[in-house]
Amino acid sequence: MKTINSFALFLVIALLSSNYAYSQKTNKSMEQLATKAQTQFASIDNNKIAYRKFGKGTPIIIANRFRGTLDTWDPLFLDLLAQNNTVITFDYAGIGYSSGELPLDIKLVAAEVTKLADYLKIDKFNVMGWSYGGWVAQYVTFLNPSRVLKTVLIGTNPMGKNEISFEPAFLERALKPQNDFEDGVVIFYEPTSEKSRTAAQASMGRIFAHADVSKIPATQELFQRYFASNVAIAEDKDHFREAYATLKTPVLVLSADHDISFAAANWFPLLKHAPSVQHIIFPESGHAMHFQYPELSTQYIKAFLNN
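Now predict its structure.
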């Protein structure tokens, strides 16, 4: 009960500050599309896959983080993306609003992206992935080189063996059935930075003003389904890590200077041999650096996708 009460108190405070932040930092005439987008369902492999589609321009299909749902994206981040691209967010099978079970093989999760594109009659598209979704997006990219135009990877690492593993604080907080505000700050932001904490309050306020928290994965069984592919990702029997040397698809990687789950430094050895990859690191930030810097991160992404 303590967690629920403290979280509820945080929401009251955060909502007040987020309304100010939203109006002050964005063009007042900008449509707020993300929170108004209708949840629709695609029939894929006998499952109902929930998705939302809004905006205009070349499609970008976005793969979500561990425990993420349609509701847990920062709507400001999505609205800014939607100014130049058709944004498509979705819930994996068995997650959030979608039926079925989350596949144990991440390649099957990646296949949901292309099957959703097929359902929507989209041939070529951009793909974006955050965290776990960053691995999903990489598999989509390497397995479908003729369909993926450009790839954006946020707060994630390449496949194969990475020298820096998760910090203990991530697993201590991220695996709780419910998280309070301080958990969110530790997992997604830089706790020692007041700038980051302020951004956390604003972003979480925007998110939880509309999110159905009952849809957020909260069981150990679901957590283990996410982790089931970790060994295969590290082994990288497809040699996708090496394939970055010859990859033609342009890739933009956004990292934080202190991501306790996916360290930016894990990209450094690969970058010397990955000519199509650009890497940007945000200061005083953590795993949700794109929510801390929604305007700046989307400026980078839009410039990358549309030039």
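The chain has one domain: 2-305.
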